[in-house]
Amino acid sequence: MGLLSGKKALIVGVASKHSIAWAIADAFHKEGAELAFTYQGDKLKDRVTDMAAQWGSDICLPCDVASDEDIAAVFSTLKERWDGLDILIHSVGFAPAEELDGDYLSVTSREGFRIAHDISAYSFVALAKEARPMMQGRNGSMLTLTYHGSQQTLPNYNVMGLAKASLEASVRYISGSVGPEGIRANAISAGPIRTLAASGIKSFRKMLKKNADRAALKRNITAAEVGQTAVFLCSDMASGITAQTIYVDGGFNTCAMSAEEMVD
Ligand code: NAD
Ligand code: 0WE
């Protein structure tokens, strides 16, 4: 028996084999969960459909999280296929590229701010609203992905830091909404991982090195490690945990300066 045997999970945010959502799906599959997927845009359709099939899933639906109609259509189809839902994974973040390159006050625009918050923070609320009725009476679990740029500044993360701060606060408020129904909501704050979302970022290599040096574990974390934590948080093992941001960052966030950084 796997830790997630008999549980049905909707996974939003698979774009490639490097996606954190891919690693979560893979870990969930190993623990016996039944999976359904959404993908953003026609370009990803075949790729995500093939990956879903490899995990034994034939539920793979288009969804741009900026569209309430897309989100409604996903859940209307899901209701036809499944009698309920146990797990919602939200692994989506986006800001226009110009927002993530340069001095915060210089590059942040009203429209960039709006898009970052809509796609990266509001979309979790929109999905949670629709997931809620399907999670009644089955101790559901909602999980999103965040980053420490919500708590401390670093170059170029800019408006994404604000969107992640909003997302983390939203996890607490969503927990309050659905807690009386036995449903939990949490976030995983992951250390930097090389994914599509990280590929366009200037000096990401340098950041990975600095991160490993400051982290207590003296290395970066893997997407598979995020997947394992997601299994725990969405399993009945974590039945007492809600409204939390759990760090999977090798201890980076608690260290102001490491011995390695003191060398010249
Ligand atoms: P990724 O590029 O593989 O995943 C991002 C996903 O967001 C993609 O699947 C993309 O299709 C989806 N997306 C973007 N805009 C969308 C829209 N309008 N509608 C539907 N889907 C949309 O990168 P990732 O690193 O796996 O990112 C997943 C999550 O993890 C994000 O929330 C990111 O902020 C977070 N995160 C990433 C890191 C990192 O270093 N990679 C660290 C901490 C947190
Ligand atoms: O949340 C993220 C990445 C989010 C992201 C990435 C992109 C690149 C392509 C959001 N929007 C876009 N828009 C694009 O056009 N991470 C946690 C990874 C990340 O991004 C950074 C980081 C880290 C870490 C940006 C600057 C500094 C550090």
Distance between the termini: 53 Å
What is the number of beta strands?
7
Number of helices: 10
Rg, Cα atoms, Å: 18 Å
Order of helices and strands: EHEHEHEHHEHEHHHEH
Task: Report the structural category.
Answer: alpha/beta
Average residue-wise pLDDT: 97
Proportion of strand residues: 5-15%
Q: Describe the largest sheet.
A: 7 strands, parallel
Bound molecule types: nicotinamide-adenine-dinucleotide, ligand 0WE
Q: State the low-pLDDT regions, or none.
A: none
Oligomerization category of the chains in this entry: single chain
Q: Biggest sheet, strands in spatial order?
A: 3-2-1-4-5-6-7
Helix content: 40-55%
Q: What overall geometry do the principal axes of the alpha carbons give?
A: globular
A few lines on this structure:
The protein has 10 helices and 7 strands. With 264 residues, it is α/β, with parallel strands linked by helices.
